[in-house]
Design goal:
The complex is a heterodimer of chains A (336) and B (288).
Chain A (H helix, E strand, L loop, with lengths): L3 H20 L3 H6 L1 H39 L2 H4 L3 E2 L4 E2 L2 H32 L5 H13 L2 H27 L15 H24 L4 H9 L4 H30 L2 H6 L17 H8 L6 H33 L8
Antiparallel strand pairs in A: 1-2
Helix pairs in contact in A: 3-13, 5-8, 5-10, 6-8, 7-8, 8-10, 9-10, 10-13, 12-13
Chain B lengths: L1 H51 L2 H5 L13 H31 L5 H12 L4 H16 L4 H25 L3 H9 L4 H12 L1 H16 L26 H9 L4 H28 L7
Helix pairs in contact in B: 1-11, 3-4, 3-6, 3-9, 4-6, 5-6, 6-9, 7-8, 9-11, 10-11
The chains are: A mainly alpha (336), B mainly alpha (288).
């Protein structure tokens, strides 16, 4: 965190720099500072590369999916048959599978991560804070393939036992009335997603909670409020927008997550009826089918799925950026 | 009258106290659950993987399926080649763009680039794979290590850009002004003052991007594709560690499962090592 005078100085400095950058654009300066001009153009070109890459990404996805878009149009999104042999492609079951897994994962992850972030920010003494929060940040850096491996060999057997027990005792409930013995399925996928997004949401929430003005909380405490009352009535309302942003960011991660979900989420193309049904999510469908797609409409349809996935995650990430930015004015680094 | 009031306020006090205790307990539990999973996962992979790692595993090539022994040398070399080639593409673009965004603040262009970088970090890695497939694999007519590098570079650029931008922001403007006041042109000021001052943070960002990319399996599925043999040819399919873990984990051989754990161990050790190292490198700068 930057101290206040430093921030002010930085802001002042930036206006100075800005005005000097303005000068390079006048005719005289251009003649004098040829080097500056070249440097400006060079770095501007590199910056343009980033925009170019983004455009290329969108363009390539559309081009790749074009055949399928022409064939199925928007019906692709509501079609429930995915049959490469009959050349029929509709991706509604996987969209639902993706959203259901991500939603359940978030329902599990959000209370835990916000609770953990509150605990770290307001109850853990300052010297102990890094010791607790650093490992959580580490967890956010573990490759998803490692989560997938752990999930497949350690978590799925446990979940399988839980599922069989649930089905035996609560099988009358429609959510538990599914093929429990597989182990892989919606429940496993959701749990692994929850484990994966908890560190992300925790880390961002903690950064956001740190922006709550200390004075307001101390004011509450001075008036005789308990710490929890101060959190509930001051900290949470203050940080609300940012916390929602953090959750939405987690949702974006959960929806786009590939390897772990491919390994434990199951791989059926049917609509789900229960928590135990194995079902593809969009990312796992692309991952497991792409290299086996034998004709161009098939490949094109998978790219179409990718395009839909891209569209959903971009909307979510834009929303999250907007919320977090509005609150922290850029003080919270989103990635990492 | 006052007795009734006192009783009511005592009850209220008690209720608030209980709420406080419950809330603390709940939050403690949340933190505990998070730490629990961290310890379980890290512990399990490290413990299980360490048992399967040995010298042969790191220095020999894979044997045909069903035969015990062999190693993952080809994937280690492949991953290193793909990721270094990606870094060669991503570092200039990321750093150059960050220099532009911070040192030449334009009305909206620079801020838009920075914003775009934030958005690009949210692109699912599988979509990045599709992108590299459509951009490189299809025109060239086959899977290749180079297309994997393009995918990795796409993942690395926004990470490098954002971390470099943050690093440049921390360089005090007095340094820039001192240099400019000596009559040194802006471009030399950037190269000789701004970059050296922030070099540690820049290096950290690059290492972070490399370690992030190195663990990604999804973009490799249909770009680098994998290769059971040792290959140095970036124009041909090449093995990478994360994809090898996927292949081995989903194969029906017990020996391959052990190798998947061992490869995860190697990957994890690298990621943890770089993370701890970069943190030690930056201590006291970015954290409160």
């Amino acid at each position: 965190m930057q101290s206040e005078p430093q921030a002010i100085k930085r802001a002042l400095g930036r206006t100075l720099i800005r005005s000097s950058a303005g000068k390079t654009r006048t005719r005289d300066a251009r003649v004098i500072n040829l080097g500056d001009r070249v440097f400006y153009i060079a770095t501007r070109t590199l910056a343009s590369c980033v925009i170019l890459l983004a455009l290329l990404l969108v363009g390539d996805l559309f081009r790749g999916a074009w055949e399928s878009i022409g064939q199925f149009g928007l019906k692709f999104l509501i079609g429930t048959t995915w049959d490469p042999v009959a050349r029929q492609f509709g991706t509604l079951p996987t969209i639902i599978g993706t959203l259901v897994k991500a939603t359940i994962g978030l329902l599990l992850a959000v209370p835990i991560s916000i609770g953990a972030a509150l605990f770290i920010t307001f109850y853990v003494p300052k010297w102990l804070r890094p010791i607790i929060s650093y490992p959580i940040e580490l967890l956010a850096g573990i490759p998803s393939i490692v989560f997938g491996l752990w999930g497949l060999f350690v978590m799925v057997p446990v979940i399988r036992v839980v599922q069989i027990w649930l089905k035996a005792h609560f099988g009358w409930f429609f959510l538990f009335d599914g093929p429990a013995v597989y182990g892989v399925g919606v429940l496993s996928g959701s749990v692994i997603l929850a484990i994966m997004v908890v560190p992300i949401i925790t880390a961002i929430s903690r950064d956001i909670l740190l922006t709550v003005p200390r004075l307001q909380i101390e004011g509450m405490l001075a008036l005789g409020a308990t710490k929890w009352e101060a959190i509930w009535k001051v900290a949470l309302p203050y940080a609300r927008v940012g916390l929602v942003g953090a959750v939405i960011l987690g949702l974006g991660r959960a929806i786009g997550e590939t390897m772990a979900v491919t390994m434990v989420g199951g791989n059926s193309f049917d609509l789900i009826h229960s928590l135990f049904d194995p079902v593809h999510s969009m990312a796992s469908q692309i991952a497991s089918e792409f290299t086996e797609a034998t004709y161009s409409l098939y490949v094109s349809s998978l790219i179409y799925v990718g395009l839909v996935l891209f569209g959903i995650t971009i909307c979510i990430s834009l929303l999250a950026q907007l919320l977090i930015w509005r609150l922290s004015k850029g003080k919270v680094a989103i990635f990492e | 009258m006052s007795d009734v009031n006192a009783a009511a306020s005592r009850r209220r006090f008690l209720r608030r106290k209980v709420t406080e205790r419950l809330a603390v307990g709940g939050m403690f539990l949340c933190a505990g659950v998070t730490i629990f999973f961290l310890v379980t996962i890290l512990g399990y992979v490290l413990y299980h993987g360490a048992a399967a790692v040995n010298w042969e595993f790191l220095t020999s090539l894979p044997l045909p399926p069903g035969e015990n022994g062999g190693g993952i040398l080809n994937a280690l070399i492949g991953s290193a080649m793909v990721v270094l080639c990606a870094a060669a593409m991503a570092v200039p673009i990321g750093l150059g763009a960050a220099v532009f965004v911070n040192e030449f603040p334009t009305a909206g262009f620079g801020r838009f680039v920075r914003f775009l970088a934030e958005v690009l970090t949210g692109v699912p890695s599988i979509v990045v794979g599709l992108f590299a497939y459509a951009l490189v694999v299809r025109p060239l007519g086959g899977f290749s290590g180079f297309s994997g590098s393009v995918a990795y570079a796409f993942i690395m650029i926004p990470i490098i850009l954002i971390s470099a931008h943050e690093a440049f922001r921390l360089v005090p403007d007095s340094l820039r002004e001192a240099s400019l006041a000596l009559g040194i042109p802006k471009w030399r000021t950037i190269l000789r003052v701004v970059l050296p001052v922030s070099s540690r943070a820049l290096l950290t960002g690059v290492v972070l991007a490399i370690s992030r990319a190195l663990g990604e399996a999804a973009p490799m599925l249909f770009t680098a594709f994998g290769n059971p043999y040792l290959s140095f040819n970036m124009g041909k399919p090449i093995a990478t560690v994360p994809l090898l873990i996927y292949t081995y984990a989903t194969a029906p051989y017990e020996d391959w499962h052990q190798k998947a754990w061992a490869a995860s161990f190697v990957l994890l050790v690298f990621v943890l090592f770089t993370s701890v190292l970069t943190r030690a490198f930056l201590r006291g700068k970015s954290h409160e």
